[in-house]
Amino acid sequence: MQTLNDYEIIEKLGSGSYGDVMLAKQKESGLLVAIKTLEKRLLIKEKKQYQVFIEKEVLTQVKHPGLINLIASFQSSSQIYLVLEFVEGGDFANFLKINKNISQQNIVFYSAEIVSILEQLHSNGIAHRDVKPENIMVANNLHIKMIDFGTANFFDERGLNESVRDKLNELREISQQDERFMDEIDQYQQKHKATFVGTAEYVSPELLEDDICGPQSDLWALGCIIYKMFTGTTPFCDQTEYLVFQKVRACQYQNSNKIPQDAMDLISKLLVRDPLSRLGGGLPSINYLYQDSKNTYRELKSHPFF
At which positions is ATP bound (predicted)? Predict the structure, then answer.
């Protein structure tokens, strides 16, 4: 069993709601890694054990070149540690800021890579639920990797083994019990929402109206990202979060002369209010899900844009 003593901490890369992300070096191999630390006290207080378990299970069960690799996990009396592959190139949001005039060929390339990642996740019954440029890393070889599965969810558990399903049910029960901390949680959520402007521009109508965020919400976010790659801004961008949400609810966005016709057609078929009507919204047929659907990733990947 590994411990933190097996790693040399180099520097802090960033901070999250429940801990820090540290750049470290594996003492035995010299491998550079990113260690995500999570404070147990905060996870228990805010009933997030369920999400940590899901993040670990997603990265353990699903393998794809476009997913961050989980190298190891261990814990101390006060912390949970996830040892992740270190991606040196920075996030996609920063990449787009630097490369303001990205070519259509590269936009198609990165769009196809995101589609490939989402197809793999969705075919395994997993919705990411927070797809945005800040949660996509660009490696030195210019390929992308999706990160941060802290809000992911298993929308279909048929592919999970019994022990994993039992653990998920146990953690769900814990998250639903004991209301002692609800006031504190509400305060946290309000604070979190107030600083969540980046994600607000990628949020789907069903999340705003019904508090539902399934795999089709990832396809909505894909449409927003493609729009941003062509124009430099998101389709529902506005001065305040409230105005952004109003535009999202109304599915109100402008066609842009910066976007070619085939790309605009794809965007218009992803930014659809009805989740099941989005292109690919019947979800994938890689493994076993939705084999009879006529609106799968096959149709999405066959769009002329690609």
Answer: 36
Query: Residue 192: pLDDT band by 50, 70, 90 thresholds?
Result: very low
Residue 130 annotated in active site: yes
pTM higher than 0.70, yes or no? Answer: yes
Q: State the SS3 of the chain.
A: CCCHHHEEEEEEEEECCCCEEEEEEECCCCCEEEEEEEEHHHHHHCCCHHHHHHHHHHHHHCCCCCECCEEEEEECCCEEEEEEECCCCCEHHHHHHHCCCCCHHHHHHHHHHHHHHHHHHHHCCEECCCCCHHHEEECCCCCEEECCCCCCEECCCCCCCHHHHHHHHHHHHHHHCCHHHHHHHHHHHHHHHHCCHHHHCCCCHHHHHHCCCCHHHHHHHHHHHHHHHHHCCCCCCCCCHHHHHHHHHHCCCCCCCCCCHHHHHHHHHHCCCCHHHCCCCCCCCCCCCCCCCCCCHHHHHCCCCC
Report the length, in residues, of the chain: 306
Residue spans of the domains in the chain: they are: 4-85, 92-301
36 is in an annotated binding site: yes
Is the CATH number of domain 4-85 3.40.50.790?
no
Q: Calculate mean pLDDT across residues 136-151.
A: 94
User: 6, 91, 130, 274: which is the annotated catalytic residue?
Assistant: 130
pLDDT-derived band at 196 (thresholds 50, 70, 90) equals very low
